[in-house]
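Discussion board: Methods & Data

I've been asked by a reviewer to show the raw model output for two of the constructs in my manuscript, not just the figures. I'm not sure how much to include, so I'm pasting the format here to get opinions. Each protein appears as its amino acid sequence followed by a line of discrete structure tokens. Is this the kind of thing reviewers expect to see in a supplement, or should I convert it first? Here is construct A:
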Amino acid sequence: MKRKKIAVALTVLSSVVLFSSFVSADVFPKKRLEGKYSAWYDSSVSSYGYTGSVDAGRQSWNGISSKVNIGKTTVKTGNSTDEVYVGTTTDAETLGQAMPYMISWPANIIAPPNLFNWDYSVISLYHNTISAGKMNTNDLRKSIVSHEFGHALGLAHTTGSNASKSIMKPKSNSQETIFEPQTYDKAELKSKWGN
């Protein structure tokens, strides 16, 4: 049993390292298994006052591709439901993150999007860094949520000259002027999922 726990821990650690070091394209080589799915909101979403922003950011990807639609559910299921949480972090540079997971036994495992398709993502939004960066308005929160759902759909950070006009540009603790997917983001989503 101890060896299994160590093996799972090493798998998770190596996945985190791989996830963070091999992302350089505007789309990940792999993607979630379904483009039409629902998101479940933890109670922290409403207790921090993020429900409207999460709704808007989630819905910003709908209607771009006939193969992508992110709904909302009150029931968390294991196969294709994204989970959304709001909390705090000790990393002053991180506003949010989307972590992809594969269903596995005895525990679900992180799926580096450069190596594996995934079943669902856990989206975490960090209220303390969002507030510290003066991004605590509904539009700016929507921008962060939209960005994280873009990762959950298989989009990487936008690189090169397209970064200035993309919701998927790397975020920082500064005012953002892009609140939803732009022309470039929509084209990347269609290249990933189809029209």
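Construct B, same format:
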Amino acid sequence: MAFKLKRSSVASTLSLTPLIDVVFLLLIFFLVTSEFEDEERRLDIVLPSATSAVPMISKPREVVVDIDSAGDIFLGGKLTALADLQQLLEKAVADNPTSQTVVIRADRQAAFQPVVSVMDVCNRTGVGDYSVTTQEGPDG
């Protein structure tokens, strides 16, 4: 006994209404959550001026301080005194106040006092992001 199934015409057509509804909901979502550049400039405001306002003139870069086994401090391959290092870091912090970093590379035979002195100079000049580099692996 064979049964014949009748297919209705409703099942054979694809309803696009739910798909269109979803697309419109996504469009509305992205329009509502997007921020536009002109949003800040809606009001006609004259910004105040400052005589000490200086734009960021140099790309933030890390300052590398080397300390050799004798405890001498080098900056860019040149022997540098702590006072000169402090002046240079003050200028670097003035150019990039939020993102200035210092990397301290000390020889393993160096005394700890020069490293602490460089850290102290970093703290006095406002450099909070400084690090002491080490070599990876067991002591050989």
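Answer (T.O., handling editor elsewhere):
This is acceptable in a supplement if you add a one-line summary per construct. For B, something like: The helical segments are 9-12, 17-33, 82-95, 112-125.
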